[in-house]
């Protein structure tokens, strides 16, 4: 019967432990149940010993709830051992272990026989002296030899000298030195505190808010309020557990104060505390403080498949992500694609919606430096290479892994395909090493080499600039061919598309104004178009003419020294994955160009042959056909027929150009190529 | 006989292995020495101690002819001969050796290019360009990633252009600036491409390309060149404003010359004026006259060589600054015009000779069949334009002297004229014609490179009443006339 009465307590205790170690908790509860309900002493003993075996080695670090479990397990084991003839002798050892763990623990007298209880008391009295304690006012914290604990009315302390300090917010702490001896018997101590300031108790929703008083952080609220906060929580329609545990501000100096509460994902609250809270000295409990949630929404989409969204390192699921509630604040947004990645620092504003289109960027993996040869500037250069990612905006940078050889790193990257580009540093073996070759290559083999001097001021500056230079495939235009004619006040219209002419543009006259502002040259007009709206207004001196701004197709200047050819290729390969229609054709054309630059004409044909571009003028289908013909020419006479076909096809587009809308016409070039072939 | 002790065999084995043991250090020492010599030469060269540099590099070639620094030294020596000594013929042996012994070295690309440039310079006719073109093609084929490739394309383009193959030339020029858009040669190639497009009758393409030069390389000398070429073409060929007399020029100056009879435009745009009373030509620069070229009495033709040298042709022959005595011109006594072609050959028209005389740079001369020419001017295509009063035709001849266009006197005019007194051309291919006689009377015409009339005016309509003997086109689209009677110049705009 007595055992059954004990079960609810054990159950509650078990609930408290649930979060820490569910398996051990179950074992503990099973042990109690086996003995209490079935009288199964052996199995109960086995399980209690399992609990002791698990907890005893880390007894010094256990929290109070688990210390209680361990103490109870010793108590039960002592009782169980005491009932068996063969195990009886072990009972004393169990009690001794219990005393060593917590001398203030009181054995369960409903469970423990009088004889055992007496044995427990005797063993404890051999090493500990009882101390009776009184506190005024109560509710403070007792510290014994520097260890804080609950202010119990009676404590068992080992023989010797002890320093006891009782403290409470708003009061000056009281101190007692006790010298305990075996012969001295029990002692008592009375703590009477003197008030020195007011104390203010806070309950905050949510728990975990940081509390600032006059701009100084006092710590964070923790845990959850107990039943004592119910009267405060109820008027606000809250339960006590909705609030944090009490947070007490002691030593409140006279005068007004500013209280500030900050919590992640919540709006910061600032409260003014009147001088009457500080003086006269008293304990105050403020009405529970609720911090309003502060969130915005984030939507991320992408035309590229397979993206997964990460916010400051935490996965938020696959794309597309629509209207995702996100705490306001700043985040490092990352979208990982099967190939390439997209990263951006974003700020979510409260109540605002942020929508992003994620385009993957190529990733470049630094493989490390070949060889172990030391040279002046090696560590400096390596540090700069490791930090190169901070200088790149168009590429995601993966630093080298510590201790991994470049060869192994290359094998890893090739297998995992975690990067589209690799970067490898190789010292050039001179008598004295003062040059390092940097290799940038795609996993497909297109490469570029750059030699740097480790001791120059910024050896990686040119590389960073080139890696970051990603040319655009289109530029804003108006369907006009313009010239800077000396003596003319603005860009002179050489020719205009039919639409522009219909809109009112006059060929042979200069443009004077764009959107009401004077425009003096072709370069100035191009700059203005970079930031222009969808439609601009042009003036040639007469009535203004509205023209739509068009995105005109370009051929990338792949051979330009400010571009890193492998990086451009990697960029185009990613673009290709998400491009459709004419955009796909334009990407393919430029991929073909980039491959031609690398003398990979067969691969270039692979890109160009199946590409299609809708436009007949400017960079369009004729450009594709002409480039295809050039590739066939490079492959030799075996492909003469195909080259002829391609050039003949190109001639069907007499307005097609190279480079851009104002580039040279393809027709005379294709005609000459055909003449040479035939 | 007892078996030989292993210890007795060791010295023999060591001796056998000695060459193998010694060779690598020797090679390493040689490479080390070669590098030191090369660097030492480089330092001397940078300090303009050319002799020391040449000696050091020559020493390198003797002591380490197979080292990786040998091709560098050969190329440096060849460049020195060309750029400092101005002895291209002395550069050739170095380049030949570079080609023969180090064709796999990266420096061979630069060497082949230089060799091709030298061969092209030596060429005196289209067929002579074959070897040069082969070298340029070698650069492109053997060293496709070399920085020399754009220049090789550019040179190939010029070679095709000099052979009148405009389409092939355009292909190469486009390849030159597309291979490496920011190569130093790119603006030059774009400029050449623009001119070639004009020759291919694509004026809009030409203008767009000139604009591209200005946009892509705004700070380059080629951008300046493109600016005036573009302005000229737009003005003469597209805008075509009526010619207007700006009056005496420059700045209203009158009676400031001594019987000016001949005008020409120097390659840098300055006006050259031959003053008959002074028997001398003068350069007009910034409003100031300064003597230019040799003295020559009764000069009948004035021209400027590509290097800027002033040449005067008279009965006594060709007078040049560099040659004290006039070079006889096969007794030509009624010279009416002269022009230098791309090969350095001098084309001379004579009013008494029913053919054109061509004097090669090597001294040889030949005759190109043609009607008697009363005036002659060069064309950017490499040919010349001549006026044949007897036939009343203007003939646009190609570089071989074959007529490409024939323009009857008076075509597209309200009334015909009878005589052409002088011809002039500009770098953009426009031709100015000074005419007289007929119902048209005294006046000027401006024609496009194919002979189409662009602008015209009679002196009467312009209010000019002097004796105009020569004319020149300036870079601002103006037409300069010299009036020998009033000792002044007029500018028409």
Structure description:
The complex is a heterodimer of chains A (678) and B (493). Chain A has 678 residues and is α+β, with helices and mostly antiparallel strands. Chain A has six domains: 2-112, no CATH class; 198-290, Immunoglobulins (Immunoglobulin-like, Sandwich), CATH 2.60.40; 295-357, Sandwich (Immunoglobulin-like); 363-468, Rossmann fold (3-Layer(aba) Sandwich), CATH 3.40.50; 474-553, Roll (Pdz3 Domain), CATH 2.30.42.10; 565-677, Serine Threonine Protein Phosphatase 5, Tetratricopeptide repeat (Alpha Horseshoe). Helix content of chain A is 33%, strand content 28%. Chain A is built from 19 helices and 38 strands. In chain A, helix 1 (2-17) packs antiparallel against helix 2 (22-38) and helix 4 (64-83) packs antiparallel against helix 5. Chain A is elongated, with a radius of gyration of 40 Å. At the A-B interface, strand 32, strand 33 and helix 19 of A face helix 8, helix 10 and helix 11 of B.
CATH class of the largest domain in chain A equals: Mainly Alpha
CATH architecture name of the largest domain in chain A: Alpha Horseshoe
Q: How many angstroms does the end-to-end distance of chain A come to?
A: 112 Å
Write down the domain tally of chain B: 2
* Helical content of chain B (DSSP H or I, runs of 4+): 25-40%
Basic shape of chain A? elongated
Distance between the termini of chain B: 114 Å
Any idea what the radius of gyration of chain B is? 29 Å
Instruction: Summarize model confidence as the mean pLDDT of chain B.
Output: 91
CATH topology of the largest domain in chain B: Neuraminidase
User: Largest interface by residue count?
Assistant: A-B, 33 and 35 residues
So how many helices of chain A?
19
Mean pLDDT of chain A: 90
């Amino acid at each position: 019967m007595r055992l059954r009465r004990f079960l609810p307590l054990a159950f509650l205790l078990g609930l408290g432990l649930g979060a820490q170690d569910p398996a051990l908790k179950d074992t503990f509860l099973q042990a109690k149940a086996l003995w209490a309900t079935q009288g199964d002493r052996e199995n109960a003993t086995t399980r209690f010993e399992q609990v002791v075996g698990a907890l005893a080695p880390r007894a010094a670090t256990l929290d109070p709830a688990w210390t209680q479990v361990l103490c109870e397990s010793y108590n039960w084991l002592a009782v169980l051992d005491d009932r068996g003839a063969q195990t009886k002798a072990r009972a004393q050892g169990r009690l001794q272990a219990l005393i060593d763990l917590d001398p203030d623990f009181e054995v369960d007298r409903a469970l423990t026989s009088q004889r055992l209880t007496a044995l427990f008391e005797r063993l404890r009295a051999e090493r500990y002296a009882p101390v009776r304690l009184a506190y005024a006012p109560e509710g403070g914290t007792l510290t014994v030899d520097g260890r804080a604990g609950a202010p119990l009315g009676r404590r068992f302390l080992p023989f010797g000298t002890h320093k006891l300090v009782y403290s409470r917010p708003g009061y000056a702490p009281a101190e007692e030195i006790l010298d305990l001896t075996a012969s001295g018997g029990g002692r008592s101590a009375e703590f009477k505190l003197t008030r020195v300031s007011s104390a203010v108790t806070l309950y905050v929703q949510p728990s975990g808010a940081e509390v600032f008083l006059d701009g100084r952080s006092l710590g964070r609220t923790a845990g959850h309020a107990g039943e004592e906060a119910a009267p405060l929580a109820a008027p606000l329609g809250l339960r006590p557990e909705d609030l944090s545990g009490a947070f007490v501000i002691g030593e409140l100096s006279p005068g007004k104060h500013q209280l500030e509460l900050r919590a992640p994902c919540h709006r910061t609250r600032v409260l003014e505390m009147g001088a009457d809270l500080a003086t006269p000295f008293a304990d105050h409990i403020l009405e529970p403080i609720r911090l309003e949630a502060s969130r915005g929404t984030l939507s991320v989409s992408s035309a590229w498949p397979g993206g997964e969204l990460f916010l400051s390192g935490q996965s938020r699921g696959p794309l597309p992500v629509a209207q995702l509630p996100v705490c306001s604040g700043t985040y490092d947004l990352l979208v990982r694609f099967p190939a390439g990645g997209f990263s951006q620092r974003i700020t979510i504003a409260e109540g605002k919606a942020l929508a992003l289109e994620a385009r993957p960027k190529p990733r470049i993996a630094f493989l490390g430096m070949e060889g172990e040869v030391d040279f002046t500037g090696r560590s400096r250069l390596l540090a700069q290479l490791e930090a190169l990612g901070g200088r790149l905006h168009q590429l995601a940078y993966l630093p080298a892994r510590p201790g991994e050889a470049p060869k192994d790193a290359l094998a890893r990257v090739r297998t995992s395909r975690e990067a589209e580009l690799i970067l490898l540093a190789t010292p050039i073996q001179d008598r004295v090493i003062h040059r390092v070759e940097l290799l940038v290559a795609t996993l497909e083999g297109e490469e570029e080499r750059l030699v740097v001097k480790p001791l120059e001021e910024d050896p990686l500056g040119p590389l960073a600039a080139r890696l970051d230079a990603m040319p655009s495939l289109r530029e804003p235009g108006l369907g006009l061919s313009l010239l800077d004619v000396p003596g003319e006040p603005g860009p002179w219209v050489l020719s205009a598309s039919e639409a522009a002419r219909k809109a009112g543009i006059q060929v042979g006259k200069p443009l004077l104004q764009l959107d009401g502002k004077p425009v003096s040259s072709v370069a100035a007009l191009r700059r203005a178009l970079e930031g222009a709206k969808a439609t601009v207004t042009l003036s040639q001196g007469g009535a203004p003419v509205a023209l739509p701004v068009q995105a005109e197709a370009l051929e990338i200047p792949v051979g330009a020294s400010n571009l890193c050819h492998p990086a451009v290729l990697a960029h185009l390969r990613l673009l290709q994955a998400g491009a459709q229609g004419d955009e796909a054709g334009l990407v393919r054309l430029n991929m073909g160009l980039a491959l031609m630059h690398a003398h990979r004409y067969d691969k270039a044909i692979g890109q160009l042959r199946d590409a299609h571009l809708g436009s007949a003028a400017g960079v369009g289908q004729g450009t594709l056909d002409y480039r295809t013909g050039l590739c066939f020419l490079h492959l030799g006479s075996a492909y003469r027929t195909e080259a002829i076909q391609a050039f003949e096809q190109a001639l069907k587009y007499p307005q097609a150009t190279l480079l851009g809308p104002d580039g040279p016409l393809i027709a005379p070039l294709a005609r000459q190529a055909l003449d040479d072939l035939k | 006989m007892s078996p030989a002790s292993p210890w007795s065999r060791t010295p023999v084995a060591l001796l056998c292995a000695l060459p193998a043991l010694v060779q690598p250090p020797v090679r390493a020492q040689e490479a080390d020495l070669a590098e030191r010599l090369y660097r030492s030469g480089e330092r001397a060269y940078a300090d303009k101690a050319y002799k020391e540099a040449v000696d050091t590099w020559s020493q390198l070639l003797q002591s380490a002819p197979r080292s990786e620094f040998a091709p560098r030294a050969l190329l440096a020596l060849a460049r020195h001969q060309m750029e400092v000594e101005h002895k291209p013929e002395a550069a050739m042996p170095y380049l030949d050796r570079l080609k023969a012994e180090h064709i796999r070295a990266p420096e061979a690309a630069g060497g082949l290019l230089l060799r091709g440039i030298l061969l092209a310079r030596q060429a005196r006719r289209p067929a002579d360009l074959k070897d040069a073109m082969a070298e340029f093609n070698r650069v492109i084929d053997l060293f496709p990633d070399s920085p020399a490739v754009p220049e090789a394309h550019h040179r190939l383009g010029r070679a095709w252009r000099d052979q009148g193959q405009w389409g092939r030339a355009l292909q190469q020029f486009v390849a030159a600036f597309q291979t490496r858009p920011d190569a130093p040669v790119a603006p030059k190639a774009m400029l050449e491409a623009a001119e070639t497009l004009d020759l291919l009758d694509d004026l809009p393409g030409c203008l767009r390309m000139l604009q591209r030069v200005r946009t892509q390389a705004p700070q380059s000398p080629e951008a300046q060149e493109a600016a005036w070429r573009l302005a000229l073409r737009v003005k003469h060929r597209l805008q075509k404003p009526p010619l207007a007399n700006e009056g005496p020029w420059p700045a209203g100056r009158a009676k400031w010359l001594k019987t000016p009879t001949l005008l020409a435009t120097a390659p840098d745009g300055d006006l050259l004026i031959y003053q008959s009373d002074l028997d001398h030509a003068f350069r007009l620069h910034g409003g100031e006259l300064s003597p230019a070229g040799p003295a020559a009495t009764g000069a009948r033709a004035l021209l400027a060589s590509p290097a800027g040298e002033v040449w005067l042709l008279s009965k006594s022959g060709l007078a040049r600054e560099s040659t004290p005595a006039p070079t006889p011109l096969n007794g030509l006594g009624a010279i009416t015009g002269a022009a230098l072609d791309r090969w350095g050959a001098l084309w001379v028209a004579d009013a008494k000779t029913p053919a054109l005389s061509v004097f090669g740079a090597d001294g040889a001369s030949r005759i190109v069949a043609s009607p008697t020419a009363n005036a002659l001017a060069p064309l950017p295509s490499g040919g010349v334009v001549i006026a044949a009063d007897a036939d009343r035709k203007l003939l646009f001849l190609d570089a071989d002297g074959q007529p490409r266009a024939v323009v009857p006197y008076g075509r597209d005019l309200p009334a015909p004229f009878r005589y052409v007194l002088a011809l002039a051309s500009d770098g953009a291919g426009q031709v100015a014609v000074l005419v007289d006689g007929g119902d048209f009377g005294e006046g000027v015409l401006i024609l496009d490179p194919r002979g189409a009339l662009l602008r015209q005016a009679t002196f009467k309509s312009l209010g000019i009443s002097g004796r105009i003997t020569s004319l020149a086109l300036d870079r601002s689209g103006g037409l300069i006339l010299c009036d020998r009677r009033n000792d002044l110049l007029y500018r028409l705009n």
